[in-house]
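Incident review: delayed structure delivery

Summary: a single-chain prediction request sat in the queue longer than the usual turnaround. Root cause was a stuck worker, restarted by the on-call engineer. No data loss occurred. The affected request and its eventual output are reproduced below so the record is complete for anyone auditing the incident later.

Affected input:
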Amino acid sequence: MRWVLMAVVFVLSAACATPPGGSTDRPAGVEVLGTLPHDTGAFTQGLELVDGVLYEGTGLEGQSSLRRVDPGTGEVERRVELPQPLFGEGITVVDDRVWQLTWRDGVAIEWDRDTLEEVRRVTYEGEGWGLCRDGGRLVMSDGSDELTFRDPGSFAVTGSVAVRRDGQPVTRLNELECVGGQVWANVWQTDEVVRIDPADGRVTATVDLGVLRPDDVPASDVLNGIAAVPGTDEFLVTGKNWPTIFRVRFTTG
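Output delivered after worker restart:
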C-alpha cells in the first residue's frame, strides 16, 4: 500500500478518569502510521476493509452510495447510488454480500460484493446507524445506548445489549467495527471511539481522536468511519467529507 508514513504518536492523557470504586474504561492513545487520500464528497457512514478492498457507504438524501475503494491510493474503483429518497448508513461485509443500512427509511439493502448490484431489501423497525459482523451475528446501532444483534442471513433480531460506561448509558453509538470479539464504535458528534464488550455492554476503552481532525473542515463534518486492517492491530479511520483516511494503532492499557 502506498501510505504516507508519519512518525507521530499522540498520547491522550485525559481520555477518562477513574471514578470512585474503579473503572473498566481504560484511557488510550493513538499512533498515526500513515495517511491516504479520501474523497471530500464522501459523507462517510460505514467503512470496512476485506480482502484488500475498502468498502465505503455514504449518506445524505440524493447523495448516498456504496463504493469499492483502492486502499492503496484512495481511488474509488466502483460506485453505485442509492435510489432517492434513501439515506445510506452503516455497512458490513458478509461472505459475498454487503449489507447497508438506511437512516429512517427502515430498509437494509443487500448488495452483491463484487458487482455492487442490489440483491434484495429487508425491513426493520427504528433507525439504522452502524453495522458490523461479529462472528455468526451482526451488531447494529440505532443512535441509542443499545446494540442489537441480528442474523446475518435473515436480518432478524436475535438479541440486544445496553452499553454502559462506568454504569452510565452511552448514547449516539454510530459507525461500528467488530474485531477480536469486541465492538468499536464512533460516538456521534464527538471525536471519541469506544471499545465495547458485547457480552455485557461495558465500555472497556475510550480513544479521543480529536488530534486527527483536519483544521479546515467544519464542525458538522464529524469523525465517522472505522475499519480494522485484517491481520494487524491497526485501523483505518476518517470523517464525513474529510480529505484524509488515517491508518492508526490504538494504544490501550
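Verification: The mean pLDDT is 90.
Action items: add queue-age alerting; document worker restart procedure.
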